[in-house]
Amino acid sequence: MDNSLTKTDEIQRALTEAGFNPDEELHALETSNNSFEIQRIRIDHKDNGKHKLYIDHGSNYLGSETQEEPIPDNTLQAVIFAEQHIRALWTDGEPIPICSSIDEVPNAREPICSSCAGCKEAVIGSGKCKPKMRLWLLVEQDSEIKPMVMNLSPTSLKHWSAHKRKLKRSKLPVVSVNTVIQLEDTKRNGYRWAEVVFDVTGVSAKSTLLVAKQARDELDRVMQDITQRDYDDPGDKVKS
Fold it and tell me: Is residue 9 part of a domain?
């Protein structure tokens, strides 16, 4: 990569001197982009316990693989408007899984089995099919409410289940509350990683609920895809 690409201040100055408006040129990129990319919430697991929760803005040409935005105090407030139990069976080097499912319904062109419940690859402890929970969120960022996605590794699923049980006993749907997402340091069998824990800070505003319903409807096609980005978190390698 040409190091000159990292000198954004010089580039903006050159654009201005040439008569361009840098902000308008960047806005043109946003309005002309036909492929919709959802930002991801990820975890940087640290051996010293100083784990980091951050927003992954995707790859760029600025000298790093991804543009990471740390989340202050490892605490994220969001409205969760959908959840999906996903499974995928991968072959090394392939960009898409050879078999996958959403909420136990196979969605691959040629699924290994007609049902996850009867598939030998889905057997806990011996199967190769990897289960995860995928959460779709609304997060306030730069005074805007934006959709994002976060994958829970198997070690965090118990916390998500406990959160939902509390909501059920309170007669509150998941989407009806402002959910607090935080990290909990965990050490076991020589490994150290972060697990995701949940709490609530109140109920969702009506305006947010309207956005949540719209997001759930408009993102339906995107929500049916399972990609490598769903399975490239470091926490996926930690044994539960």
Answer: no
Question: pLDDT, tens digit, for every residue of 151-171?
Answer: 998 889 999 999 999 999 999
Residue 196, domain member (yes or no): yes
The structural domain count of the chain equals 1
Residue 187 phi, psi dihedral angles, 5° rounding? -130, 130
Over residues 75-111, the pLDDT tens digits come to: 999 999 999 999 999 887 777 888 999 998 998 888 8
Geometric angle at alpha carbon 156, from 211 and 95, rounded to 5°: 75
Tell me the C-alpha distance between 58 and 65, whole Å: 8
Structural domain boundaries enclosing 147 = 38-85+131-237
CA separation for the pair 138, 146 (Å, rounded): 5
Task: Kindly report the three-state secondary structure assignment for every residue of 78-123.
Answer: EEEEEEEEEEEECCCCCCCCCEEEECCEECCCCCCCCCHHHCHHHC
Q: Is residue 99 part of a domain?
A: no
Q: Does residue 95 lie within any of the structural domains?
A: no
Residues 6+ positions from 222 with CB-CB distance below 8 Å: 36, 38
